[in-house]
Structure to design on (794 residues):
């Protein structure tokens, strides 16, 4: 194993960033405010608006959060990967509706592209241009060569990209597209002619998601045909870590909120938390959160210091975090009892975010199947 | 270079080199007798004697008790024990037999005994010349540890002890015991006091040790009866009535959450002599590759692959949790990770050995004395023995109560 700092890369600056992010989000995205923002209407046939606080996003850009993992040469801050991971964790802790995780994810893919166009895109991200990845097809395959977009003879894009995260909050997209020479990566403006963004109706109220349809859309090449999948693969450990960190943050909210409820709700003359049938599963949630958190930091640290090990470790993190996401959210609803099953209780916002998170880039068993291939070799 | 080595201070780096050099020249080699999987299973006096010699030589080389002051037989250093432990593990040494002495008695004595008692007891404890056992559990005081009935009655400058201790590992070899007992019947918690008791010298004279047989058929633990055993007052630790507080020091160290790092060696192959390290995920994978299932190797079965990967992830998470807990600012509560250590470690071990014996399939039915038992029958044996540690030191149900109450702040369960 190559050298790794004992603190995962969390120096003074990174801890300070994390603390200021936590305070900022606590101050500006309370669960109460979040519920009023995204859950004011329970009717599925409500207008499919993209609700988020764009003023808050501008403040986040001014705080430099989109620049943390953009290299200094491209106008960013060039912090370790755990800086982005800790931001994702804080975002998850308040289920913050924003294009931050999409944009941080795009950063890592662009960092893996070796082109002037990629550097320019990174500079725009550092300056606050929200960017999303469009890397999968309608089957939701996470293989880096899976795409429903083709490069046509004119060098423009045709086809369809599905499950694009926070698409309507983003100004541009990084699109994987196939041509005879293989998969390349392309930058497409959200305002490009021939691009249609069709929003999905999704369960998670704290995000948006869309299909992108391409009809002869102008695109800038970021990674040449045949090199795009390698760039995605190189960035994949960081992408897995960002989602895992979001789940860790959301898991901690679910745990602490349920613990508070278990201290105050009285049944059979005792607070719920007195009963071991409630107490012990909550401890198990805590154990899983801690596992997921440490594994995520470890994988993020390896991404910077020991890239050969990063994918193995990131699959471990995503596996543990996905299992934890299911368990933390299911226990939160169950232990809130009848009220936990209602729309008015805030728990469902986080429950749904965890449902969404755990399947992105593959659920726990998916991660472990690929991990086993890495560690034990492919099965006969 | 390992992760830990990079953070060594110059003094620590030098000490690490000294350990490596000594171990390269002084490894005791293969044991002349069968060594069981863990110290708590020791029953053969020859095995005990051989391991005591190993502990003495490692102590004389300065690798045991390094962080204790010189006045009590230690090395007078700071943060050297972890380095010695790492190097002894790396050199695949035998384990240390005085495990209860070093892990529980020594820190308790160090933090609570009077100075002359520390100087009297700790050197021979650390060198392994004196083996220690723990007198906590009783027939009516298991998870409810404070329900102690063994009674110590003051008689001038002495105490007279009567009572019955059970599940006392290593008592059949022990020279000394740490003893929690009652000195006041009117107060459950404040009526407890804590003593160090010489038991070998009192055998047949106030102390009786009888073996209890474990579900594996192995001996290793015992019941200990006290009938009017007289000990001097200087062997009391801390104040009369402060026994519960002192016991918390013992338990914190037993559960891996104490201030002092416990000396520990290990890594050498034990019973079964297959060279397989029970408890490692790597040996689980080797095992799966060498057993058949559904017409392929067990390592090709997707369901088993998933189980093995789950274990590998938990193993990695345990290490990374320990790493994270040492970094300030990365945990919300200082005891959140340390108090998990006993619980997650013992359950991991139980689940790993359970998967392992199932991988062996039909052959896992064979006892360890059957000539056809794979790997000397060690996997099913290790699985059975794993319940010793999920129950001992506060059953894991009690550990979950402690975490729920102290870390999460949930109301106390009865």
């Amino acid at each position: 194993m190559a050298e790794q700092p004992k603190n995962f890369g969390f120096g003074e600056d990174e801890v300070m960033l994390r603390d200021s992010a936590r305070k900022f989000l606590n101050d500006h995205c309370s669960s109460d405010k979040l519920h009023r923002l995204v859950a004011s209407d329970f009717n599925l046939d409500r207008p499919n608006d993209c609700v988020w606080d764009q003023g808050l996003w501008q403040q986040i850009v001014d705080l430099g959060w989109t620049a943390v993992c953009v290299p200094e040469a491209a106008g960013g801050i060039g912090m370790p990967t755990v800086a982005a991971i800790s931001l994702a964790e804080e975002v998850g802790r308040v289920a913050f509706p924003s294009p931050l995780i999409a944009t941080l994810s795009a950063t890592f893919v662009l960092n893996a592209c070796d082109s002037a166009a990629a550097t320019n895109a990174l500079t725009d991200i550092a300056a606050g241009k929200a960017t999303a990845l469009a890397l999968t097809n309608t089957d939701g395959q996470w293989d880096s060569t899976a795409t429903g977009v083709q490069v046509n003879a004119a060098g423009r894009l045709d086809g369809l990209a599905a499950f694009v995260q926070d698409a309507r909050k983003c100004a541009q997209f990084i699109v994987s597209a196939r041509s005879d020479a293989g998969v390349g990566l392309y930058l497409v403006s959200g305002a490009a002619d021939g691009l249609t963004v069709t929003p999905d109706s999704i369960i998670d109220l704290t995000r948006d998601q869309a299909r992108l349809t391409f009809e002869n859309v102008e695109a800038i090449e970021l990674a040449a045909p045949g090199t795009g999948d390698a760039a995605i693969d190189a960035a994949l450990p960081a992408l897995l870590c960002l989602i895992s960190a979001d789940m860790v943050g959301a898991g901690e909210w679910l745990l602490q909120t349920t613990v508070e409820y278990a201290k105050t709700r009285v049944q059979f003359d005792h607070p719920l938390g007195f009963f071991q049938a409630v107490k012990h599963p909550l401890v198990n949630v805590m154990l899983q959160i801690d596992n997921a958190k440490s594994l995520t930091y470890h994988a993020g640290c390896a991404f910077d210091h020991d890239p050969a090990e990063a994918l193995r470790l990131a699959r471990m993190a995503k596996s543990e975090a996905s299992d934890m996401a299911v368990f933390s959210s299911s226990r939160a609803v169950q232990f809130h009892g009848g009220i936990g099953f209602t729309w008015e209780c805030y728990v469902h916002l986080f429950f749904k975010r965890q449902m969404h998170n755990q399947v992105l880039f593959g659920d726990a068993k998916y991660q472990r199947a690929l991990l086993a291939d890495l560690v034990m070799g492919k099965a006969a | 270079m390992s992760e830990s080595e990079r953070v060594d201070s110059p003094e620590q780096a030098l000490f690490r080199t000294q350990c490596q050099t000594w171990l390269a020249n002084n490894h005791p080699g293969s044991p002349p007798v069968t060594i069981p999987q863990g110290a708590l299973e020791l029953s053969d006096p020859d095995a005990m004697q051989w391991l005591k010699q190993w502990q003495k030589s490692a102590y004389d080389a300065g690798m045991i008790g390094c962080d204790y002051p010189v006045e009590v037989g230690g090395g007078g250093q700071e943060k050297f024990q972890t380095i010695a432990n790492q190097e002894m593990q790396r050199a695949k040494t035998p384990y240390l037999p005085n495990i209860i002495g070093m892990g529980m008695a020594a820190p308790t004595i160090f933090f609570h005994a009077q100075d002359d008692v520390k100087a009297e007891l700790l050197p021979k404890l650390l060198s392994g010349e004196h083996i220690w056992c723990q007198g906590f559990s009783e027939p009516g005081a298991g998870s409810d540890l404070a329900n102690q009935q063994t009674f110590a009655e003051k008689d001038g400058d002495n105490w007279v002890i009567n009572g019955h201790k059970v599940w006392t590992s290593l008592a059949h070899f022990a020279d000394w015991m740490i003893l929690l007992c009652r000195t006041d019947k009117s107060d459950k918690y404040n009526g407890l006091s804590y003593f160090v008791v010489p038991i070998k010298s009192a055998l047949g004279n106030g102390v009786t040790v009888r073996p209890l047989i474990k579900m594996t058929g192995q001996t290793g633990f015992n019941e200990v009866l006290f009938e009017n055993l007289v000990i001097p007052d200087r062997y009391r630790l801390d104040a009369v009535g402060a026994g519960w507080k002192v016991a918390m020091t013992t338990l914190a160290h037993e559960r891996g959450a104490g201030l002092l790092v416990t000396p520990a060696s290990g890594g050498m192959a034990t019973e079964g002599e297959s060279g397989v390290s029970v408890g490692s995920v790597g040996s689980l994978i080797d095992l799966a590759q060498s057993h058949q299932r559904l017409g392929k190797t067990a390592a090709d079965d997707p369901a088993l692959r998933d189980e093995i990967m789950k274990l590998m992830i938990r193993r990695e998470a345990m290490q990374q949790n320990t790493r994270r807990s040492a970094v300030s600012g990365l945990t919300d509560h200082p005891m959140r990770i340390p108090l998990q250590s006993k619980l997650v470690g013992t359950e991991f071990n139980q689940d790993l050995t359970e998967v392992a014996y199932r991988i062996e399939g039909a052959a896992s039915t064979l006892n360890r004395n059957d000539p056809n038992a794979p790997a000397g029958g060690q996997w099913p044996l290790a699985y059975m023995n794993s319940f010793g540690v999920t129950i001992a030191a506060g059953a894991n149900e009690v550990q979950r109560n402690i975490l729920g109450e102290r870390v999460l702040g949930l109301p106390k369960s009865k």
User: Anything to note?
Assistant: The longest strand of chain A covers residues 157-165. Chain A has a mean pLDDT of 97. The CA atoms of residues 164 and 210 of chain A lie 5 Å apart.
